[in-house]
């Protein structure tokens, strides 16, 4: 059929749905209990937003918003379904593992980070993904241990000062 016979309004462009934080190939989707709750809360908010679409009068706007929300919900459902909750109580309290709150010294500066899942990671909140290079360098270490961390061409020494769960 010629495009001359198709109404322009029917030619909706698929909305751009930003991808979720990527997981490295082969990695499980580990989350803290708080991370799982945040995913479920996000789903609840998207479903509420979807319900509010009924109030939008212009059908094309409503359809576009619904496509966007449905796309986000699909990606979110995949994350929720693949989430493997790690309970901190099951961790060795003397060793850095997933969920640990770590206090360490690097470049004579004391820093604090928690090792969390991909969707929870936020450097501003001092949360790093378990597959990040610094988390990998710290994992398995104990309080008082010193380890090297490669940052570009520079090697930095890290001393673990405290571990909490």
Features of this protein?
165 residues; alpha/beta; Chitinase A, domain 3; 2 domains; 5-stranded mixed sheet; two-stranded parallel ribbon; 3 helices; DNA binding; protein biosynthesis; translation elongation factor activity
Overall, the morphology is elongated
Q: What is the spatial order of strands in the main beta sheet?
A: 5-4-3-7-6
CATH superfamily of the largest domain: Transcription elongation factor, GreA/GreB, C-terminal domain
Radius of gyration: 22 Å
**Span between termini:** 63 Å
What's the total count of β strands? Answer: 7
Poorly predicted runs: none
* Global structural class: alpha/beta
The CATH class of the largest domain: Alpha Beta
Mean pLDDT, as a whole number? 89
């Amino acid at each position: 059929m010629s495009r001359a016979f198709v109404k322009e309004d029917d030619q909706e462009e698929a909305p751009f749905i930003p991808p979720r934080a990527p997981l490295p190939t082969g990695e499980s989707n580990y989350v803290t209990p708080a991370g799982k709750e945040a995913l479920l809360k996000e789903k609840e908010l998207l479903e509420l937003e979807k319900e509010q679409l009924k109030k939008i009068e212009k059908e094309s706007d409503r359809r576009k918003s619904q496509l966007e929300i449905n796309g986000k919900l699909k990606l979110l459902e995949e994350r929720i379904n693949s989430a493997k909750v790690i309970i901190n109580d099951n961790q060795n309290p003397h060793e850095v593992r997933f969920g640990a709150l770590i206090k360490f010294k690097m470049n004579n500066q004391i820093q604090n980070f928690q090792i969390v899942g991909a969707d929870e990671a936020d450097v501003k909140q001092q949360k790093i993904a378990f597959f990040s290079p610094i988390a990998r360098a710290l994992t398995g270490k104990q309080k008082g241990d010193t380890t090297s961390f490669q940052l570009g061409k520079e090697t930095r020494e890290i001393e673990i000062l405290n571990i909490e769960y």
